[in-house]
């Protein structure tokens, strides 16, 4: 794509009407052989061509829509159909002034905005007594040119003819003999699936009804002409008739099977192959300002080495008018040349049940949204709002259908991935994970480790009770509950890619973890569509807390909770996902000596001897200061002052680190004093009288402690620790 800043003839673009937003469009110049000789984006509704007026003789200039995904689809034939606007040059051109182009009609530029539409569906073939999916069929997706576009371009005599044909069909319910391709019958059980909203819906599904069924269906859905401006439809003005049809173009859809519309045309926009379950899926672009795309499908199958058409109902009756994007299109065939799939036995259950992070945190006890996203809920060990760190090891149950084929399964595998919530790309987890298995020897049983993955494709093997036969088939046994129940090991302390091993501040935050299923198809690891294969995802009832203990573990039934853990792509389930907050940072704790400040500004420090003299019991101040902190406040603190042997007076405070003010309790009652966070440190300032009570002088100890909250589902990552000093208060004698 050339830039349009070259010197040459200048052009100014005008639009009929006013576009509500900027349009991406381009200018293209074609030579006599229909080849593009120049192509450029148009900016600010003006462009220049690197040609003189003499150079442009014999060339054609078009303005046309542009999108990055469709930039190579430009052709003179397509533009001639009406998708582009041809620039006509005046007889005389002043090279020093811009050429003012005639306004582009609204019915042309309106179609230059493009939206993306997902097209999906399934292909079935009649096998014995049921429809079964067709594997490796080629589905050709074609876009039928918009009806409004045709109506606007029809000659007047065709407009009159179309009007008369419609009126004739409305008055005459005795339909003519159907075309030859519509005389076959289908299984009567399938006819019940046919929509009565449109008589051609049967053809849209690849079904072909007998004449009686067609006639009955058509009569039952006889359209009524919209009353508004109906007189114009009966008028002698082609202009009024055309406008009526354009404004009510949907009424034309039921007539296409009976009125032969010679002007219907289509362009192929995609060719896709069905998967093992008959599914096909593709994305197409369509003009945003018009109606939904009108799509036509035809199907090929490789029969005896030759791609053979097995479904092609014709545009008239086979078009899906106003196709709603991302809705399923079912195509039914009855072609005995297509081999029927051999049904697989339903061995075991297609269930995946994700229980917990480690032993102690049920996955439904972790916030998945809100301010505490990725942190633990109440009822979990240590504290609400705990993050995760160290080795995060999810526990997962796989149904017998998915397990290794020694259990009758189908050799499925799974993969774990992770990404920081702000990142786009997923990264696979490939940590070695093991199961213990039994080996009976003459000297007694021994238990060896077996590596279940990750393999070269970053997949883990699904085992149930035994090793694969190829590895001996030995019984599995839980020797170490952590090793033998982990589905993977997400080593969060290795997330720092900058190599600063202790600087975990670079990696803290919310992470998403994801588990998907894979199986090998023709030797290639292929991701499994859970929806297409009927695989179920379960999580524990949110009222249950882990460790679960000796209770029945029911699965969650509230879809608003379950959906938080479903990994969805294009409306299909592809796995399990959840959010966890990772923070491996160690809290900080420090404790300063107690000091006294007198009213005359003199001070005293406990120091190595611990004695503090104060001048006035009521006006002097005893000062306490310590630091208990963690970067994201994932810790709690405790503070205590103990007088003498601790039997009469204790002062205690505790809270989450980072809280601005915490009450100090005296013998479990509110004392009236508070620990306040000042410049990152906690401070307490009280009079000697406040802590001496009935004593004239006394010895004390102060203790500050911190309690880290980061955990791995088994235990806290770091232990509690505390600091303490002793001091004594006595009155200063002058």
Give a quick summary of the entry.
By secondary structure, the chain is mainly β. The chain is built from 13 helices and 42 strands.
Q: End-to-end distance, in Å? A: 94 Å
Give the overall form: elongated
**Largest sheet descriptor:** 12 strands, mixed
**In what range is the share of β-strand residues?**
35-45%
Task: Report the uncertain regions.
Answer: 1-6, 173-222
Q: Domain count, please report it.
A: 4
Oligomerization state of this entry? single chain
The whole-number mean of residue pLDDT values reads 83
What is the structural class? Answer: mainly beta
**Rg result:** 39 Å
Work out the helicity level: 10-25%
**What is the count of β-strands?**
42
Number of helices: 13
Architecture overview:
Helix content is 11%, strand content 36%. It has 13 helices and 42 strands. With 734 residues, the protein is mainly beta. It has four domains: 104 residues; 218 residues, no CATH class; 232 residues, no CATH class; 144 residues, Immunoglobulins (Immunoglobulin-like), CATH 2.60.40.10. The chain is elongated. A hairpin with a 2-residue loop joins strand 26 and strand 27. The N terminus is likely disordered. Helix 4 crosses helix 9. Strands 31, 32, 33, 34, 35, 36, 37, 38, 39, 40, 41 and 42 form a twelve-stranded mixed sheet that branches. Strands 20, 21, 24, 26, 27, 29 and 30 form a seven-stranded antiparallel sheet that branches.
């Amino acid at each position: 794509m050339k830039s349009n800043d070259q010197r040459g003839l200048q052009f100014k673009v005008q639009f009929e009407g006013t576009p509500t937003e900027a349009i991406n469009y381009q200018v293209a110049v074609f030579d006599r052989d229909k080849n593009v000789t120049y192509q450029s984006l148009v900016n600010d509704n003006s462009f220049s061509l690197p040609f003189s007026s003499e150079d442009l003789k014999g060339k054609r200039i078009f303005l046309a829509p542009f999108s990055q995904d469709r930039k190579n689809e430009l052709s003179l034939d397509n533009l001639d159909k009406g998708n582009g606007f041809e620039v006509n040059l005046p007889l005389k051109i002043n090279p020093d002034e811009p050429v003012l182009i005639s306004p582009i009609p609204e019915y042309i530029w309106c179609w230059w905005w493009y939206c993306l539409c997902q097209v999906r569906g399934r292909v079935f073939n009649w096998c014995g007594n049921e429809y079964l999916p067709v594997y490796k069929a080629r589905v050709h997706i074609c876009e039928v040119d918009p009806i409004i576009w045709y109506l606007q371009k029809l000659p007047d005599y065709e407009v009159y003819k179309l009007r008369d044909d419609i009126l004739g069909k409305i008055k005459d319910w005795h339909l003519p003999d159907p075309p030859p391709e519509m005389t076959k019958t289908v299984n009567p059980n399938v006819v019940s699936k046919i929509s009565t909203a449109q008589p051609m819906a049967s053809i849209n599904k690849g079904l072909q009804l007998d004449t009686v069924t067609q006639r009955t269906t058509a009569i039952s859905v006889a359209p009524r002409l919209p009353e508004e401006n109906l007189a114009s439809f009966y008028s002698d003005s082609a202009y009024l008739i055309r406008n009526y049809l354009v404004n009510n173009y949907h009424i034309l859809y039921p007539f296409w099977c009976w009125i032969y519309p010679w002007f219907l045309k289509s362009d192929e926009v995609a060719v896709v192959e069905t998967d093992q379950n008959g599914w096909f899926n593709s994305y197409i672009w369509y003009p945003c300002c018009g109606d939904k795309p009108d799509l036509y499908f035809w199907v090929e199958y490789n029969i005896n080495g030759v791609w053979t058409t097995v479904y092609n109902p014709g545009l008239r009756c086979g078009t899906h008018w106003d196709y709603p994007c991302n809705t399923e299109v079912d195509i039914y065939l009855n072609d005995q040349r297509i081999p029927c799939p051999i049904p697989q036995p339903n061995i075991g259950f297609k269930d995946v049940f994700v229980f917990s992070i480690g032993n102690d945190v049920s996955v439904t006890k972790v916030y998945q949204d809100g301010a505490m996203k990725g942190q633990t809920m109440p009822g979990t060990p240590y504290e609400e709002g705990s993050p995760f760190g160290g080795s995060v090891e999810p526990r997962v149950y796989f149904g017998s259908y998915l397990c290794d084929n020694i259990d009758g399964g189908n050799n499925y595998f799974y993969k774990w991935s992770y990404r920081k919530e702000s990142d786009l790309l997923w990264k696979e987890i490939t940590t070695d994970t093991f199961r213990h298995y039994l080996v009976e020897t003459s000297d007694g049983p021994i238990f060896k480790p077996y590596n279940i993955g990750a393999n070269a494709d970053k997949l883990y093997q699904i085992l149930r009770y035994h090793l694969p036969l190829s590895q001996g088939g030995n019984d599995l046994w839980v020797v170490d509950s952590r090793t033998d129940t982990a589905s993977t090991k997400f080593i969060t302390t290795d997330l720092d890619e900058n190599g600063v091993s202790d600087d975990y501040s670079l990696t803290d935050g919310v992470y998403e973890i994801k588990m998907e299923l894979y199986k090998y198809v023709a030797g290639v690891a292929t991701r499994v569509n859970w929806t297409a294969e009927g695989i179920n995802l379960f999580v524990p009832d949110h009222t249950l807390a882990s460790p679960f203990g000796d209770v029945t573990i029911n699965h969650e039934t509230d879809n608003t909770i379950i959906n938080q853990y479903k990994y969805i792509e294009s409306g299909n389930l592809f796995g399990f996902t959840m959010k966890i907050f990772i923070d491996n940072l160690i809290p900080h704790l420090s404790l300063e000596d107690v000091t006294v400040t007198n009213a005359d500004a003199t001070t005293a420090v406990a120091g190595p001897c611990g004695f503090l003299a104060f001048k006035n019991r009521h006006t002097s101040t005893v000062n306490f200061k310590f630091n208990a902190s963690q970067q994201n406040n994932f810790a709690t603190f405790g503070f205590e002052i103990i007088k003498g042997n601790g039997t009469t007076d204790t002062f205690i405070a505790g809270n989450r680190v980072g809280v601005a003010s915490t009450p100090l309790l005296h013998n479990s009652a509110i004392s009236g004093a508070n620990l306040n966070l000042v410049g990152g440190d906690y401070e307490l300032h009280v009079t000697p009288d406040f802590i001496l009570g009935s004593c004239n002088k006394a010895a004390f100890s102060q203790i500050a402690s911190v309690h880290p909250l980061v955990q791995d589902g088994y235990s806290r990552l770091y232990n509690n620790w505390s600091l303490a000093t002793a001091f004594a208060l006595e009155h200063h004698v002058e």
